[in-house]
Amino acid sequence: MPSKDPILTPELLKIIKIFGAASILLVVVFSFFDSYRANNSGEDRTFRMTSASRLYFLNLKAINYVRENRSDAGMVLYRHNGFSLESEEATLILVLILNSQKDESYLYLEPKNIDWPIRLSFEENGQTRLLNFENGNKFDHLEQVTQLQKLLEEEVKLFLLDEDQKIPLWSSESEKDAVKFTFEDYFRIIEN
To answer: Three-class SS string for 121-179?
Structure first.
């Protein structure tokens, strides 16, 4: 006849308490890191905007922009008021684009009174450097814009090259502010 040994011995109860407490503690700790989980969807989230960031922009920041609805593309284009949109001089305008259908946002370099490719020059360490920008897709434009942002953070003076002319780019205070605020608003929208 089997013996009447108790199943839940004091040693087994101690082990259950230790592992039970450890597992509950792990669940609580990992719940704080939920946003760091792996993205296995294969979806590129580079340009993804959340509803909260889009609403923040539309309710508080969009008042500083000239809005253009592009129903053919399903997008809305925003150009900051600080850019001289009526000027006849060759320049570049940063255009913030919201694509609500895909929940994405883009930043586009729009040439005004000049065509692609865009050639820029700046001085670095006493040497004149050139940047050549080609019209491309959203990834190309993001790369170009981040290059410009790094140069502007270093307070480098940029010049737009148009045939034989060297035109100062974003030299007025309103244009500098427009570029700065457009960068800030865009990177806030995509939460980068």
So the answer is: EEEECCEEEEEEECCCCHHHHHHHHHHHHHHHHCCCCCEEEECCEEEECCCCHHHHHHH
> What are the tokens at 110?
């729009």
State how beta strands 104-112 and 118-124 pair.
unpaired
Q: Express each pLDDT in 117-149 by its tens digit.
A: 878 887 777 777 787 777 777 787 778 888 888
Does residue 142 contact residue 108 with C-beta atoms inside 8 Å?
no
Mention every residue, 6+ apart, whose C-beta is less than 8 A from residue 145: 94, 107, 109, 183
As given in the structure block, the two tokens for residue 67 are 């809005």
What pTM, to 2 d.p., does this model score?
Answer: 0.66
CA 10, CA 30: separation in Å to the nearest integer?
Answer: 30
